[in-house]
Amino acid sequence: EDPGEEQGESVEITEDSSSDVKETAENVQSEALNERQIILFKAELAEKASRFDDMAMFTKELAETDEEMSTVEQRMFASAYKQVIISRRKSWRTINDLLSDPSMNHDGRRRALKSAKCKIEEELLSYCREALSLISDHLIPNSSADEGQVTYRKLQGDYHRYLAEFQENGSRKLSMEASSFAYQEAHRLAQMYLELRNPVRLGVALNYSVFLHDMKASPEDAVDIARQAFDNAISEQKEIKDGSETKIIL
């Protein structure tokens, strides 16, 4: 038994002990920050070395810490998954084109092509689902910034769109609906909270218009979204002296 508890004594917290606790907490926080910086450095190194699968793995670690991502970390996350997915999208298109080539009708060639196509689709499915899970389970719940909320919903639209590109029937329909909803939500939030010439807002308009044009076969709606974003940014640029950043974006 604890003698102090039996005698009803209280434990005195002196100024020195309080300082020790505070110092320990600061050290722990500093160590955690350093560890996060190391993970980010590994991701940056993987990017420079064009090892994008590794880059995605490191940014996944950052996302799973359940801490709000900085703007730099958001960019790294988006870039990592974009790179691992875009390379496989290109491969899938190449294989798909070859399957329509009459010279590839030989059974052995077609089997090899279909096997390669299936493998690529499995990888695309895995990476897109992984990114979508990280966004919905970790990034959106831990984001307090308006720009972050818009960014993550735009990414949701992107990854669902990538899935719809190769899926069929019911699966494609679900991905199309999810992509459309995410882009609409990103567009709505961007219009509410971000400046007209904000790069994230312009990026949402661009990707949403691509979705409408390529996936929904709605070129008129796509042009309307893109033109509105462009015209609004131009009108705001005229009201400020330094519009160099906007010119580059547009």
UniProtKB/TrEMBL annotation:
Site (Interaction with phosphoserine on interacting protein): residue numbering on this chain: R89, R161
Record field: compositional bias (Acidic residues): 1-18
14-3-3 domain boundaries: 36-242
Region (Disordered): 1-28
Pfam family, one: 14-3-3
SUPFAM superfamilies linked to this entry: 14-3-3 protein (SSF48445)
Family in the record: Belongs to the 14-3-3 family.
Protein name according to UniProt: 14-3-3 domain-containing protein
